[in-house]
Amino acid sequence: MLKKMCVACFMSLLLVLLLTGCGGNKSGTPARAAGPPAEQKEALPAVSNQPTEWKSDGKISDNEYASHQTIGDLEVYTRLAGDSVMFGLMANTEGYLALGIDPEGDLKDVDMIMCAIKDGNAVAGDMCSGGKHSSHPADTDSGGKMDLTDISGSRKDLTAVFEFKRKLDTGDSRDEVLKTGENKVIWAVGISSDFPKPHSKRGAGTLVLQSN
């Protein structure tokens, strides 16, 4: 009888230990350290069919533009106002960025817009490329005129932002006419702020201008 009672007591004690666990962790589950939060990519500025007042200050604000599209390495913001188009260009580059209007798609006589930050100031060039491997002289050096206005820009780390305005049809023989709808373009970024320096990356795409 005593032997049976000892066996029963041992089984009861074993059952209690199994139910409560050994080692003092009441949950029975090891605690896990919280991992670092997932890295969040900074959101791009929003656009609106009814944009707010446009201000050329080198900053692309939410709802300041009516349209946004990514063309290669460039984030391109646009809005139409009468016979003019306002641009906001953004890219991660240590040097210049460039957008060329190339309606024939043959890299000949491309209407080039180049922007950079030099000595802390935003500069922009209204240029024309004579071919794939040619230089890009300023329109003012080849019988044309400067047709970019309200130029501004800023840089934060590697992100460069530029804003400017130009007419859809400048009347300049060195410029291409921009139209509502699709416009063939090329783009480039450089490692230098000097426009004549070679680009580090380039490509082609389509700029779509939408009427508000």
TrEMBL record:
InterPro entries: DBH-like, DOH_DOMON, DOMON_domain. Residues 72-190 form the DOMON domain. Keywords: Signal. It holds the Pfam family DOMON. GO terms for molecular function: copper ion binding; dopamine beta-monooxygenase activity. Residues 1-21 form the signal peptide. One of its GO terms (cellular component) is extracellular space. GO terms for biological process: dopamine catabolic process; norepinephrine biosynthetic process; octopamine biosynthetic process. Residues 28-60 are annotated as: Disordered. This is DOMON domain-containing protein. It comes from Pelotomaculum propionicicum.
